[in-house]
Amino acid sequence: MSSTPPPANPPERGDPPPHLRGALPLLLLVGALLALAVLLSRVAAGQQAPMLTYLTLAMGGSGLVLVLTGGGIRRGGADPATVLRYSVVAGALIALGSALGYLTVHRVGAAFIALALAFPPLLTWLLSFLLRMERFDALRVGGLLVALAGGALLAVGKGLAAPADRGAVLVACAMPIVLAAGNVFRSRYWPKGAGSRELAGAMLLCGALATLPFALQVEGAGAIARMGYTPLLLVTLVAIATFVAQYTASFRLQQIAGPVYMSQIGPVAAIVGAPVAVLAFGEALPRGFALAAALIIAGLAMFHYRATKPC
């Protein structure tokens, strides 16, 4: 598998920062779409949807749309075998990360899932540092520890408030770790000559194929028929459209700005998704929420302060 990163990642010395190259609008767009995807999963769960089947259809449908409208996965100049290997691993990671959230959203709430999305930037940087894709920075490490303390407080508060859901809380907390691993993998092993749209489509199709056997095993073949129920069908169609827009923009964002910058979509999704979940679904915030949120915001501010200063 090729280990060649995207053409513009990392930027050369003297290049304009990512936000001056059109990355900021993409960041805001993808973050908002990610929040919408989380909220849609909460709606689907409220309609008693078989969530693995729902995820399979959302990924498969959106992947098929991207491949068909993008001229196929061999449109670019990348080696097809390399693209396939890349897509299988990337698809498995995105499927696992999404499944962890989708299977627990009805237990822990969309607000908790949205707040958990604040952590992939920190974990992405940590993984990138361990793989020598990023340099050590004491301020970023400090921000990482402060934000993780806030996340731990949030998880403990949620678990104490609903002891029966502690297992679901732990599963949901694993979601940002998997998503961060996916962020790093997609940049580190981006196939040379491959376009962002073809990779997004191939990844989503592979993710759907990876999820399908588990959906059939856990929920049964009849689950697909249940998804034909009109409200669920409408939610699924909106989810497919959301995935198409989200992953088209997110792969382009990762291509031009790299994994750490791209992973900031999580905090954007948290800012958008958590308040909407509270207002729309009447969810109760975990105990200690204010202190946990303050720690997370402070940690993120420390973490990203370095990006505004020359090294």
Structure commentary:
The structure is a single chain. This protein is an all-alpha fold and 311 residues long. It has one domain (28-308). The protein has 14 helices and no strands. Mean pLDDT is 83; it is low at 1-16.
List the helices and strands and how they pair.
Elements: H1 23-46, H2 51-69, H3 80-102, H4 105-108, H5 110-116, H6 120-130, H7 138-161, H8 166-188, H9 196-219, H10 222-226, H11 230-257, H12 259-262, H13 265-281, H14 289-305
Helix pairs in contact: 1-11, 1-13, 2-3, 2-9, 2-11, 3-8, 3-9, 5-13, 6-8, 7-8, 7-14, 9-11
Task: Provide the descriptors you would attach to this structure in a database record.
311 residues, 74% helix, disordered N terminus, mainly alpha
Round the mean pLDDT to the nearest integer and report it. 83
**Total domains:** 1
Radius of gyration equals 19 Å
Count of strand segments: 0
Could you spell the SSE succession in H and E letters?
Answer: HHHHHHHHHHHHHH
Q: Gap between N and C termini, in Å?
A: 32 Å
Structural class assignment: mainly alpha
- Could you give a short account of the major beta sheet? none
Regions with little confidence, pLDDT below 50 for 5+ residues: 1-16
Helical content, roughly?
over 70%
Shape: globular
